[in-house]
Amino acid sequence: MQAYDIAVIPGDGVGKEVAAEALKILNAAAEKYRFGLKVVEFDWGCDYYLKHGRMGPENKLDRLKDFDAIFLGCIGDAAKVPDHISLTLLLDIRKGFDQYVNLRPIQLYPGVESPVKTATPETVNMVVVRENTEGEYAAAGGFFKPDGPEGFAFQTAIFSRQGCERVIRYAFELAQKRRKLGDRNPVGMVTNCTKSNALNYSMVFWDKIYREVAQDYPAVKTDMALVDALTMWMVKNPGYFDVIVASNLFGDIITDLGAMLQGGMGFAAGGNINPAKKYPSMFEPIHGSAPKYTGQGVVNPIASIESIRLMLEHLGEDQAAGDIQQAVIKTLAAGEIRTPDMGGAHKTHEVGDAVRNFIRA
Ligand code: IPM
Ligand code: MN
Which superfamily does CATH assign the domain made up of 113-261 to? Predict the structure, then answer.
């Protein structure tokens, strides 16, 4: 029997609540599709920081490296630890395990209402492929006399040939695959999210590599949009988009907009992927730890459940992954169980139970 070692880092705030639902669904899928699971939980996060002065142990990557995949709830609790410190836990794993693709599918399911008027289940079906290890998040920079009148800070974005090439190639491969599946007939398309009119080194270089990679995929349509205009077009005409490839920071920004297209932060799932599988990949909802809702059991766990779907896809459990998605779709279409973000009064665990019932049915 195939078996997987899964690391779970529930993290802070509502992380524990959504991780419980994610695990519920992972277990249900394992039972039905007969694969084994060994789950190990790690208590890393802001409370760990208060005790140990660090977000996790020094050897955290060593502790994680032999797992098949990682599920992360969410990290951050600014009342306890400044965000730029707590979030090193997340960013260290993304970079340390070379999870250079941040895969963020954006789909609006029937029965879910988006605050954006143009968003319908017919128009919203795109994927953002976000670069996840370098760019604006390279952490290259410094302070000079930060407290003096002459003080300044600088932060340098790093765009390496390898870094751009591999993530853009992943986007083209994905567009090709979606086209074959008939997801976006008749053509697959990769929109290059850029800003090369103003960022005259980094984004000019990024565009050049985009054009080079595109040559290898003549069947995939090329397209480009400056990031500011892209946010406008995503709202005005979401149905136009298929795959969007973006640098780290731009991808971060446009996927919060994407979350609104798909109904809210409670629906937006993500995978931090090391495509070569040299290191474990990490799956997480893209929402934050929402301290003000912590402990109330009211947040929407769909984003976390969908992250488990992405995890199983990555592990090659396609049937189980497809089944989870169908169970999510049925739960949402039935419209009986709705957390407060959907206008209902149901609890986090009730959504997990409903999805699990459809998986078992
Ligand atoms: C995300 C988050 C993180 C990011 C933060 C918490 C560091 O916003 O996953 O989108 O910027 O990548
Ligand atoms: Mn973000």
Answer: Isopropylmalate Dehydrogenase (3.40.718.10)
Of 14, 74, 86, 90, the one to substitute when testing ligand 1's pocket (max ligand atoms within 8 A of C-beta) is 90
Burial label, 144 (beta-carbon count in 10 A; 0-12, 13-18, 19+): exposed
Q: Checking phi first, is residue 57 left (phi over 0); if not, alpha (psi -120 to 50) or beta?
A: beta
339-355 burial, b for 16+ CB within 10 Å, e for fewer? bebbebebbbebbbebb
Query: Is there a contact between 348 and 339 (Cβ–Cβ < 8 Å)?
Result: yes
Backbone angles phi and psi of 283, in degrees to 5: -120, 135
Q: Packing angle between helix 15-33 and helix 348-360, nearest 10 degrees?
A: 10
What per-residue confidence (pLDDT) applies to 184? 65
Number of Cα atoms under 13 Å in the Cβ half of residue 132: 29
Residue 185 confidence (pLDDT): 57
Residues with CB under 6 A from ligand 1: 87, 90, 252, 286
Distance 255 CA to ligand 2 centre (A): 7
Residues 234-272 have pLDDT tens digits of 999 999 999 999 999 999 999 999 999 999 999 999 999
Please name the residues in contact with 52: beta carbons below 8 A apart, sequence gap of 6 or more.
Answer: none
pLDDT at position 321 = 98
Q: Which atom of ligand 1 is nearest to the CA of 249?
A: 11
Nearest CA to ligand 1 atom 8: 252
Cα angle 165-69-210, degrees, rounded to a multiple of 5: 10
For the segment(s) 1-100+268-361, the CATH number from 3.50.50.60, 3.40.50.800, 3.40.630.10, 3.40.718.10 is: 3.40.718.10
